[in-house]
Each structure stands twice: as C-alpha cells, then as structure tokens.
Amino acid sequence: MTIGVFDSGLGGLTVLLKIREKIPNLSVIYLGDNDNAPYGTRSPQEIYDMTCKGIQVLFDRGCKLVIIACNTASAVALRKIQEEWVPPDRRVLGVFVPLIEKITEREWGDNSPPRKVAVKNIALFATPSTVTSRAFERELGFRAIGVKVESQPCDGLVDAIEMGDLYLADKLIDTYANGLLERLPDPEVVVLGCTHYPLVKNLFTKYLGNQTKILDHPDIVCESLKDYISRHPDKIGDQNKSYFLTSGDPKNIEGKALQLSGIKVSFNSII
Ligand code: DGL
Q1: Which of 12, 48, 103, 160 could form a disulfide with 77 if both were Cys (CB 3.0 to 4.6 A apart)?
Q2: Pairwise CA distance, residues 40 & 196, whole Å
Q3: For this structure, is 63 an active site residue?
Q4: CATH number 3.10.310.70 given to 98-217
C-alpha cells in the first residue's frame, strides 16, 4: 500500500512520522522540495507551479493519492489543484481541512451550514503566504460562526528550521509568540499552521506556557487519512516500499532530517 507525501521541505516529516506510528502497514513515498523551500514567501503562482510539479513526480512513481503535508501549498494552491489539475483517477488532499474539522467538531464531509462551536478564539501561527491567503478563516467560516482568529505570520521561521538553526528559531518564536499574546492574551487554542513548526513545538510551549492548548497537524491528519483510506481503498498504490526523495542535496537533507526529527533515512535526488 503506497501513498505520496509532499512538502516544501522537511516539515512533512512530522506527518510522515505519525503515519508510520498510526498506519504502519502503509508505504509512503516522501518528496521534499528542499531546493525551492521555503514556499511561505513565494507568490501564489510559484507555489501552485512547484506543488503541481512535485505531485506529478509522486504520480509518476505510482501514487494515486498524495497528501500535501504543507499548509502553505494547501492554503494557497490546493483548491485550484483539485478543481483544475488533478486527473480523475488521482486524488490530492491537504492538511488544512482536517484540523478545522477537528476544531469545529465536524465529521469529514459534513457540509451543513456553519454553526456555533465551543471554541471562541484561536491563535494561528503560519507562514506569511498562509496568513495572507486567509484560507484558515475561509474554511473556518464555512463551518463555524463567532470564532475570532488572530494570525501571526512567522517570517523566517521555516528558513531557520530548514537550516537547522535552532538558536534563530528560538529568537523568532520568542518575538512572534509575545507579539501574538499582546493581541490575544489568553488564546483558547493555538494552531501551529505549518508542518515545520511541530519540529520546534517545545519552543512554542516555552514562550506560550505549558497550560496553552497547542494543536498541530500530524495526529489529526493521520486520523483523517486512516478514515479516508478505509473508505477509498482504490486510491492506495500497490507498491510496498517507502522511500524519500528531495529536489535538494540528499546528504545535506539527511543530516538535517536526523537533527530535527530524529529519523535516519536515505534521501535520493529527483534530478
Ligand atoms: N511546511 C510548510 C507549511 O506547512 C512550510 C512552508 C514553507 O516552505 O514556507 O506551510
């Protein structure tokens, strides 16, 4: 059983690790577009083009289902990809909607009108492109009413993580967390709206406090994926081998993957 997982770089590994833990019999072909990361400050057209190119590599390797484990690509490009680009026999899913369904207490595919939910305010940390797209607010507005979202663009944080510069990541998160807490002092839920951020979740906890409820994607996406696979077994490719691809320098990426996520894997170049 194979699916594809795509990210602009290393952030998707947070989703991959959860898939390994929760759906161990599922093989995954992972592609990190490290050469073009970060996507978070690129134009919508660039993000769309790069995401389609990456997904095509995974389709060409036999994947029928690809998870875009990147909020930026999910927020900026997924809707257009689903509407205009994906061939009818393939499927592309993002990481945004499962998280919003969780917050708004919805089952997958529940398209009933928006309603009041328990949560009243949310703090969102995400890349500048994700924040500018307002996709989080849009998808939330389809499902819930009366929820305030305070967003914090975290310029430079993905670069720091991709470089393995945890000192810089610490300083940036200090600034961003405090900036957000000034505007929303007591958030009910904090969303780490970038799959890179769980790699430094301890730093968010350090500056937001232990008592803050921090939601990130990996667990929630895996639950949703498990459910999807059980309903669409035809979307699972028939290979039985997991492997890792990158548009960057494989040796360099292997070292950073090990440093940040603790996984020791071999990356191969897509070129
Ligand atoms: N992991 C991607 C996300 O979830 C990072 C985006 C980027 O490359 O800036 O948004």
Answers
A1: 48
A2: 11
A3: no
A4: no
